[in-house]
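yo, Terminal quinol oxidase subunit is done. seq:
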Amino acid sequence: MLLFGGLGIALGRFKQLAPGAVVTWFIAVTPQMHDFWNMEDDQREGQQVHFLKNLIILGGALSFLANESED
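structure:
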């Protein structure tokens, strides 16, 4: 999903489906892969950085989705 969505966004194809796939991926995967709230101090900071990075990417994908929905 992430590969398809990223390529679709980069190539300007599937203008609603591609960012929707990226959004779906990050909503489903981010809390499971980067659950910093369940980790010890050594790992917590790194996982929190990755979690926040994924939220930023999710925001960008939502922006693409919102802009394409207006057209």
